[in-house]
Amino acid sequence: MAPPQKLFLAAIFAAVIVATTTGDGSNNAAGEDIVHSSCMHASYPSLCIRTLSTYSGPTITNRRELAQAAVKISLSHAKAAAKKLAAVRETVGKKREKPAVVDCVEMIGDSVDELSRTLGALKHLRISGGSVNEFRWQMSNAQTWASAALTDDDTCLDGFQGIDGEIKSEVKEWMTKVARVTSNALYMINQLDDKRGKPHVVRP
């Protein structure tokens, strides 16, 4: 039979493991709950749930963190698309496609910059305390930059009207993904505005 001291230490060790496991599960459940409830009425609900549920950042516990995560996802997609478009620009040879690709590279570059500014505005957004004017200013900035990014995504695709081919299909696929996650991000930002930025903590 094990000595009492060892049994006591084993009991403490087991309790710590159970507490840690339970805590992690609760945090995950809280994050999943707020993601699912917030994504229900997003522009692209399934995409919203899929991208935010697999978000590798800190656990999401309130609406501002959710909006920030959505913008980070959009920014990541925009940066990936920018790299792909830059590579296509160096190899495209057709006269009709070249100007469209060049313009699209510029548009996606602007979109990356605007999404970065959006994220900056959200980081400075005070969800409790502070003046209403300060909140409105930061919210207006976030909404404006996110809307501008979405417009640039759409403008990129406009340049390919009347052009067919593999390049157009690839660019459309990349930019459609960026536009959709950006649309979802803008929705999350607008939800902050509707709630006056109050945190919505989901408790297990």
Automatic annotation (TrEMBL):
Database matches in CDD domains: PMEI-like_3
Organism: Brassica oleracea var. oleracea
Signal peptide segment: 1-23
Coarse class of the protein's main subcellular location: secreted
Cellular location(s): Secreted, Extracellular space, Apoplast
Stretches assigned to the Pectinesterase inhibitor domain: 30-188
Alphabetical UniProt keywords: Apoplast, Disulfide bond, Secreted, Signal
GO CC annotations, alphabetized: apoplast
InterPro entries: Invertase/methylesterase_inhib, Pectinesterase_inhib_dom, PME_Inhibitor
SUPFAM superfamilies cross-referenced by the UniProt entry: Plant invertase/pectin methylesterase inhibitor
Protein name: Pectinesterase inhibitor domain-containing protein
SMART domains (UniProt xref): PMEI
Family: Belongs to the PMEI family.
A molecular function (GO) term: enzyme inhibitor activity
Keyword Secreted tagged: yes
